[in-house]
Each structure stands twice: as structure tokens, then as C-alpha cells.
Design brief:
It is a single chain. With about 120 residues, the chain is mainly beta. The strands form two sheets. The protein has a six-stranded mixed β-sheet with strand order 2-10-9-4-5-6, with no helix packed on it. It has a four-stranded antiparallel β-sheet with strand order 1-3-8-7, with no helix packed on it. Helix content is about 0%, strand content about 45%. A hairpin with a 4-residue loop joins strand 7 and strand 8. The termini are far apart. The protein has no helices and ten strands.
Length: about 120
């Protein structure tokens, strides 16, 4: 079975940084694009960043100068480095297979809270 396990979320003050991790099992990881999504209270889930098998990345406009997505195929893990966090970044963050359309059921996600 495909499993998606996110970790690294925390509560931070504006301007802080976090690195999220997502470990995937049940697929040939290196042959699949990966994406990070988030869902804030009262909002729909949105795509934040994605990375293709060749390393090409795409970002939501509001995060592209602050967040960096990367992958380690040897560890079946995709990361999201988040710098200069803002209150509007507060959300539950999820990963999934696919560049823009999720392929599998959602995992538990990891909570990121940015407040002063």
C-alpha cells in the first residue's frame, strides 16, 4: 500500500523557518513527481510547490521566494524548506504523488502555525 508520512511542523513566530519532510513507500519514488499542498482553516487545499523527476520545480507565487522543495531519491523523501514564515502560511501541510493533481489518499499532514 502507498503510504505518505509528513513531519516537521511546529509553531513559530513570523520570520521563523521550518523544514518539512515527507517519506513515501509503496511506489518507485524516483519515477514520480511530488507535490506539497496546504489547507488553512476555512480554505480549500492548495498546491504550494512541486518537483518533477528531472528536478524541475514550481511554486505558488506567494511562496516562491521563501520556500524551496527538494527530494532525496535514495531516502524516498521530499522536503519543503520554509523561510521567513508569515501568519498566512498557517495551515496543515500535506504531500502527495503528482505534480499538480494528487494521486493517492491524503496522509495525516503536519501542522504549521505562524503567530506572534
Amino acid at each position: 500500500q502507498v503510504q505518505l508520512v509528513e513531519s516537521g511542523g511546529d509553531s513559530v513566530q513570523p520570520g521563523g523557518s521550518l523544514r518539512l519532510s515527507c517519506t513515501v513507500s509503496g511506489i518507485i519514488f524516483r519515477l514520480n513527481a511530488m507535490g506539497w499542498y496546504r489547507q488553512a482553516p476555512g480554505n480549500k487545499r492548495e498546491l504550494v510547490a512541486s518537483i518533477r523527476t528531472d528536478g524541475t520545480t514550481n511554486y505558488l507565487d506567494s511562496v516562491k521566494d521563501r520556500f524551496t522543495i527538494s527530494r532525496d531519491n535514495a531516502k524516498n523523501t521530499v522536503y519543503l524548506q520554509m523561510n521567513n514564515l508569515k501568519p498566512v502560511d498557517t495551515a496543515v501541510y500535506y504531500c502527495n504523488v503528482g505534480r499538480s493533481v494528487p494521486v493517492y489518499s491524503w496522509g495525516q499532514g503536519t501542522q504549521v502555525t505562524v503567530s506572534s
